[in-house]
Design a protein that fits this description.
single chain, about 150 residues, alpha/beta, 5-stranded parallel beta sheet
């Protein structure tokens, strides 16, 4: 069975909500490879007692871009990004770039608890036969760059 990879990101005012959601879904998250940005990752690692959770840089320091690179390289299957729609973010261009890359590479994005629960409980999360269609940008780039 192929292990799915999930990137977990949360703005400051949403970190506790993401930690609470992850704790409530600890069993479902157990078989998944988890990546997270900075402080969110450390909070999740402690809360879930998961030493195998990969912590990247803080979002404003490049963590959002690291997640985006992993998406472009075909390493991320799901982005759970609890963003705060009421708080302006100084690294807003990075956030938009991350969401753009996820949309470009056909990666599902959960931006709130309800959506995260729908996706996490989907049969597609455990179905090895399901492979989301990856875009072929060869017409755009002049060479095949489909993610593996």
């Amino acid at each position: 069975m192929a292990v799915k990879s999930v990137a977990l990101v949360a703005h400051d005012n949403k970190k506790q909500e993401l930690v609470d959601w992850a704790r409530a879904n600890r069993t479902r998250l157990a078989p998944l490879r988890l990546y997270a940005t900075g402080t969110t990752g450390r909070l999740l690692r402690d809360s879930l007692e998961r030493d195998d959770l990969t912590c990247l840089l803080s979002g404003p320091l490049g963590g959002d871009q690291q997640i985006g690179a992993k998406i472009a390289e075909g390493e991320i299957d799901l982005l759970v990004f609890f963003w705060d729609p009421l708080e302006p973010q100084p690294h807003d261009p990075d956030i938009k770039a991350l969401l753009r890359i996820a949309a470009l590479w056909n990666i599902p994005v959960a931006c709130n608890r309800a959506t995260a629960e729908f996706i996490l409980t989907s049969a597609y999360m455990t179905d090895d036969a399901h492979h989301p269609q990856k875009p072929d940008f060869s017409d755009y780039t002049g060479r095949n760059v489909t993610a593996t």
